[in-house]
Every structure is written in structure tokens, then in C-alpha cells.
Amino acid sequence: MRATMRITAAAMKRRFAELQDLVNEWDPIGLIQAGGPEDEYDCLVGPILRRLEAHTPVHEIAAFLDHEMVDHFGVTGVTGSLAFAVRVEAWYAERWPDTENVPLPDPNPGG
Question: What is the pLDDT of residues 26-65, one digit of tens each?
Fold first, then answer.
């Protein structure tokens, strides 16, 4: 079993924002390109992070993305889910390896 590392709340926000940028760049159904809000795909970001933290295989992350496209967005035929899953796994391994979703305590409580 791998050891996990707790990060600060600020680092958690950066990690979320970085993944949000990657998802928006992928823009699987063209919502961002059509002028949609930056948070249009946020329903994917948290679940992808949880899967990355759990070292979920990329094909399972891709299956989750495909399911969400149909179940949540009502769109079939989205392509590139596996390539995107590979890309975010590489991003996570490089930038946030073995981090978890429990922030470190505030170093300056109450002040």
C-alpha cells in the first residue's frame, strides 16, 4: 500500500483548478468552446481526483467519463475518454503523486 501525503487547503484548491483546466481544455462535448461557464464540467473534476487518489486504472476512469457523458450530460458518442484518462493520470503522477483529499490543519488557527 502506498503512503499518502496530506496537502494544505490552498494546494488542494490549486490541484482542483489544474484538473479543471485540463477537463476544460479537453471539452468533451464542446461546452467551453460554445461559451459555457468555466465550472461546466466541475461535476467531473472531484470524482476524477478521487479516482486518481485511489490509483484507479485509466480504463476505469475512461469508463466513468463515458458514463457521465451519457448519464449526466445526455450525450453519446464522445471520443477521447481513454486518452484523456491517460493524460490526467500522467498529470497527477507528476504534479500531485499520492496526495489525499484531507487538508493539513491550518498552521495558524484562529489568527
Answer: 999 999 999 999 999 999 999 999 999 999 999 999 999 9
d(CA 29, CA 18): 19
Q: 484523456: which residue's cell? A: 84
Say if CB 11 and CB 105 are below 8 A apart: no
Q: How far apart are CA 106 and CA 10, in angstroms?
A: 10
pTM, 2 dp: 0.87
SS3 content of the chain, % helix, strand, coil (to 5): 55, 0, 45
Nearest-angstrom CA–CA distance, 29 and 74: 10
Q: Model confidence at 2, in pLDDT bands (50, 70, 90)?
A: low
Cβ(20)–Cβ(42) below 8 Å = yes
Domain segments of the chain as ranges = 9-95
Rg (CA), the chain: 15
